[in-house]
Amino acid sequence: MKLHSDTSSSALNTITAYGDGYIEVNRVRYDSALAFGPEGSVAVWPVDRVEDIDAAALEQAAGLGAEPPEVLLIGTGARQRFLPAALLRPLLRAGVGVEMMDSQAAARTYNILMSEGRRVVIALLLD
User: What domain of life is recorded for the organism (predicted)?
Assistant: First the structure.
């Protein structure tokens, strides 16, 4: 799926495509799970499956911005999956909203929030 961005936000990390087994950020193709925010580097997220997500993985993803994100989007692959509430509690206590959705929906949502200037970070699993 091609995701087009506004050219005025070209300096920001934008998801430009998503498909079976890959994610494209700023027209660079990646074949592993990623975590990133609008600014800064695109980091490989050391998670292959939803079951692999632990507190350390969430902390790594949420810590990618200059300041804590308003929202951490978690793309859970081909279908929406939910994480245990106990795992999310520390982020919620810190004021970080956490949303889980399938990875294509997360990619679209990230691009919208990022283009609005929101402090958003995405952690995206491949299908």
Answer: Bacteria
